[in-house]
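B., you asked whether I could sanity-check this one before it goes into the benchmark set. Here's the sequence:
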Amino acid sequence: MTQSLELTDRAQHLLKVLIERYIEEGQPVGSRALAREAGLNLSPATVRNVMADLEEMGLVTSPHTSAGRVPTVKGYRLFVDALLTVQPPEQELIQRLWDDFEVLEDPQELLETASQLLARITRMAGLVTLPQRRRLTFQHIEFLPLSGGRILVVLVTDDQEIHNRIIRPRVSLTPSQLQDAANYLNSLLRGRRLSEVRETLVTEMRAAGEQLRQLIEMTQTLFSGEAMEEDFMLAGQTNLMEFNELAERELLRSLFEVFEEKRNLIHLLDQCIQAEGVQILIGEESGYRPLASCSLVARHYDVGERALGVIGVIGPTRMHYERVIPLVDMTAKLLGSALNQKLSAPS
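And here's what the prediction gave me:
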């Protein structure tokens, strides 16, 4: 924010007009066009002098193929932090989104619909992370005997999601023994975060008898490795092909590899769940080379008082921030309200 204090009102206004025009047209903005559009009765020569100052400060740059200028990441950051005029979503759009959420009963469908709606409205890539299992808490476990000595493990978490796995103990266990084991684990683990459960099970296994130890060992698969990986839903990634600055083949290939590989993007989104409000990462600010030509606008969605995941948009740095930022904010709040409503409804 201190950067804005170093600029005169005239320089700030010209920077704002330049960035808005570049976002709209995607072409470098020349001094003559900027002088005409700024409405300040300035000569092109005066505008060129201001542009030279802005370039020296690292807020704009001149592509080698053009005499016009384009904003840098630093310029976009100043624009977003200090010069942006946000446009709240229309009430009709808010109601339409809520209507789309309200008819869905399955929380998974809600998340998928949220990413699809953001992609459709912004014409960019919409994404939403699934509730982070490490942040969920253990509520209840059951062991149900099946044929052939198999046992169905049923785990219920505090988002009312049910996780199932079939295990095959090396020794036979009676229904009574299974019930005793479930009672023991429920009293031991209820209310603990899933991130803590695996370590607790390892400790308990050392002191348990053979039969219980087998059950605990096999139950651990619900809390380990791939089973604990957070994931996300992505929609509209092909929309990014419509932007000239992202259409270069190698750039698109690296972007789609990011979406496919997921891990680094999940790590990036995880940072957003820790922060308040809408988070905007512009170009190289993500610290992730394949996203150097993109911006991420994201916000966590909450159930009760707890942030469960993140919803957001990925698009070119040349995006309409004034519309995208409030849209992501509003969609996150609507998604949280809809999830609260579904998860608190009587079964």
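One thing to flag: The chain has three domains: 2-83, 91-132+230-344, 135-228. Otherwise nothing jumped out at me.
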